Amino acid sequence: MVHWKHTGSSGEYSTHGRTRSNIELTKVAGTSEPVYRVNKGQTVKLELTYENLGKTSPLTAKVGYYLSSNDTISVADRFLGEGTVTLYRGFPDTTFNTFLVIPSDLVSGQTYWIGAIIDYNNAYSERSEANNATYIGIRVNYFHA
Fold first, then answer.
1. Which member of 18, 19, 110, 145 has the greatest number of CB atoms within 10 A?
2. So what CATH class is 4-123+130-140?
3. pLDDT tops 80 at residue 15
4. Could you tell me if 71 and 35 are in contact, meaning their C-beta atoms sit under 8 angstroms apart?
């Protein structure tokens, strides 16, 4: 699972671009990776690319969504919910249909990472679990009364 998507081709090579956390979110200036501005309690749509490189096709797997204080996403992070994807071997799938609510108890001005882990419940035996998680950075907006 990655936070990149196929955008076309250049000659015989594929071209890729970053997935987004929401079309309408603005980016934080001056960050090395995109970090999107969000509000506490806001519902955002998450876009990620999933790919099945295994032998089982189609494969239906659960995806766990998490909030982390860093870009290393694990099941020890704050659980936000789950979804299910069905993947066919060799056909990457970029979906933009996961809705998540930004928790209202986050610290304003703080950067967090929304992450996803496919097969977070370890239903499938894999040679490598290293490519099952990805993230997108968010920064919580300040509100002045």
1. 19
2. mainly beta
3. no
4. no
